[in-house]
Amino acid sequence: MTFICPHCNHKSVSHFSKFLSFEGSPATCSNCGKHSIDANGVNDSYRQIVSFGLIVFGALSLFTQTILYFAIWFAFTTIFPIYSLYCVPLEPIETEKVKRYRSKKLVSIGVFSVLVLLVVIFE
Q1: Of 31, 43, 77, 116, which has the fewest Cβ atoms less than 10 A away?
Q2: Are 5 and 17 in contact (CB under 8 A)?
Q3: What pLDDT score does 42 carry?
Q4: What's the pLDDT score for residue 1?
Q5: Could you tell me the residue ranges of all domains in the chain?
Q6: Tens digits of per-residue pLDDT, 11-50?
Q7: Are 54 and 75 in contact (CB under 8 A)?
Q8: How far apart are CA 119 and CA 62, in angstroms?
Q9: What is the pTM assigned to this prediction?
């Protein structure tokens, strides 16, 4: 199943493309080639919340010697993408905005790399 492009109104945006869409890396329609993102930046805020939640719940798990907090974090990280995919519509984004927000993609990759490095170091 694919999602409807807000530009051409065809079902031509893939699950993977919609799930990973945010201002720095928008979903691209396979029919018209235009860009779209999730409404109101839901995926972008999800990434920030998940990163912060991993740090907080990870620290709580280490201090309390229990996996309860990791279970809470894992439940949130599996439920929210389902909400994002099926309940949040796509909205069109201009090509100029895509060019401006490409730098956000690099920052996101850098933050994710640092988090992975911290997990490897403190494991």
Answers
A1: 116
A2: no
A3: 64
A4: 53
A5: 3-121
A6: 888 888 887 777 767 888 888 888 888 776 666 667 777 7
A7: no
A8: 12
A9: 0.58
